[in-house]
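> example.struct
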């Protein structure tokens, strides 16, 4: 955050990655929605964006790039922001994303630390995008699973951020590459609490558990597992495939919101009323003790 004046600050974020779906327009939409998520997680409103492009020379038609940028522009426009420029380079592998600027009142910015013992944790989108897109590449994912994953990834977190602004939120993080467990660990360690996540309460994309059982796991999932090992406790009753979904790196995932327990049901109801049908209370915070994150 950079404070411009007592009542106005700007936030900046950047994100880009390689294609995870075949359709270039859809890839552009997903990459843009993913980049915009950090701004929403901070309680800010996106205002401008810059395209970031790496494009191979002589191997792909420029029409592919046009569709990717068109998809990105679609999501930026839906966010009420403007694309004001960008930069491209020649690269062996296609990449696309955005650098985004947003605005927020300095007193209303939401950070990913500040979780209090007794807070409830609410998640706004279902899990499993990394596993399903891996299953797509291996031709093991069903059409229904892919459709659901794409719909989730394309959806902006704008409505979730708007709903969140009406509640006394302690902290928030968007759920992306570190997976649910990784981002919960960031929130827990920075807040000096432990977070307990209830496996039975996790909202899941259709087919995610089946594909996890088939081994459709990303390299990021393995890295997340190794990184979290000293900080994570998984209950014996938690099925291995469900633990993998909780570890799964997400693209354009939902918001993980810490809110006083007494307001959690009201928050979930408000989110569902605004179209986030699988929003759910998935856990709670306790005083720091043992593992920073527990999946039970």
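> example.seq
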């Amino acid at each position: 955050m950079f404070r411009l004046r007592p009542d106005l600050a700007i936030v900046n974020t950047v994100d880009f990655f390689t294609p995870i779906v075949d359709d270039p327009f859809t890839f552009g939409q997903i990459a843009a929605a993913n980049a915009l998520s950090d701004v929403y997680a901070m309680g800010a409103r996106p205002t401008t964006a810059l395209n970031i492009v790496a494009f191979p020379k002589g191997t792909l038609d420029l029409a592919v790039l046009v569709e990717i940028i068109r998809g990105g522009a679609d999501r930026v426009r839906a966010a009420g922001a403007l694309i004001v420029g960008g930069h491209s380079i020649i690269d062996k592998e296609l990449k696309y994303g955005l650098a985004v600027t947003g605005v927020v009142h300095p007193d209303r910015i939401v950070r990913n630390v500040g979780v209090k013992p007794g807070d409830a944790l609410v998640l706004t989108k279902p899990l499993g995008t990394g596993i399903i897109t891996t299953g797509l590449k291996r031709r093991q994912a069903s059409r229904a699973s892919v459709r659901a994953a794409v719909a989730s990834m394309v959806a902006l977190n704008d409505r979730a951020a708007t709903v969140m602004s009406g509640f006394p939120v302690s902290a928030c993080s968007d759920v992306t590459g570190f997976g649910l467990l990784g981002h919960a660990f960031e929130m827990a360690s920075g807040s000096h609490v432990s977070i307990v996540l209830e496996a039975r309460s996790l909202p899941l994309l259709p087919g995610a558990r089946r594909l996890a059982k088939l081994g459709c796991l990303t390299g990021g999932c393995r890295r997340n597992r190794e990184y979290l090992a000293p900080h994570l406790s998984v209950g014996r009753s938690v099925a291995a495939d469900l633990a993998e979904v909780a570890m799964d790196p997400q693209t354009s995932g939902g918001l993980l919101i810490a809110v006083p327990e007494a307001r959690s049901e009201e928050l979930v109801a408000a989110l569902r009323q605004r179209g986030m049908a699988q929003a759910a209370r998935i856990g709670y915070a306790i005083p720091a003790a043992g593992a920073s994150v527990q999946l039970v």
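> remarks
The longest strand covers residues 45-55.
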